[in-house]
Amino acid sequence: MPRFLLLLALSLAPVLAPEALAGEGKMGRIADEVGLDDKQRAAVEDILYKSNLSKVEAKARLQKAKLELQHSLTAATLDEKAVKTSTDAAAAAAGDLVRIRVERIVAIRKQLSAEQWDKLEGMWQDRDEDEDEDDDE
Q1: For residue 113, what is the DSSP state?
Q2: Mutual orientation of helices 26-34 and 114-136 as an angle, nearest 10°?
Q3: Which whole-number Å values give the CA distances from 79 to 41, 88, 91, in the listed order?
Q4: What is the DSSP letter of 24?
Q5: Which of 28, 53, 62, 114 is the most exposed place for a label (fewest CB within 10 A)?
Q6: What are the pLDDT digits (tens) for 107-123?
């Protein structure tokens, strides 16, 4: 059993490493380019963590509703009430995903100065333009 625990700890090390929490990788590069201080970086990381938790739950509800809808639509006997319930649940979960994204953007914006927000918006626009160019090819 101790060997198993060692392997588990080693496999989780990249996830639990302090560097990951300090914003290494893509988040760290963005934070550096925008010029976040340590307090802002910590606040943004907390916002992203909480937002991602909510997003996971909403995606699970959406997936469940889609499965239930598919099941209701393909059943031998059509149950219109079940179809409506599943459709409403899917629409609510999809709406929650949009709300979560918007709330995340608003919460992050409140942590940034006007100059930092402008830099971040510029980075998003550059990324979107790059994706549009990739679509044209």
Answers
A1: -
A2: 130
A3: 50, 14, 18
A4: -
A5: 114
A6: 999 999 999 999 988 88
32-68 per-position pLDDT tens digit: 888 999 999 999 999 999 999 999 999 999 999 999 9
Q: Which residues contact 53 (CB under 8 A, 6 or more apart)?
A: none
What count of Cα atoms within 13 Å lies in the side-chain half-sphere of residue 78?
A: 4
Q: Residue for token digits 């006997």?
A: 77
- For residues 69-94, average pLDDT: 94
- Both tokens of residue 121? 């918006």
CA distances from 13 to 7, 22, 70, 85 (A): 10, 14, 40, 43
Q: Which two tokens stand for residue 35?
A: 């010029």
Quick one: tokens of 96? 């929650």
Burial of 34 (C-beta count, 10 Å sphere; 0-12/13-18/19+): buried
Measured over the CA atoms of residue 125, residue 35, residue 53 and residue 107, the dihedral's sign is negative
Which residue do the tokens 């060692």 mark? 6
Token code pair at residue 10: 């080693």
This prediction's pTM: 0.70
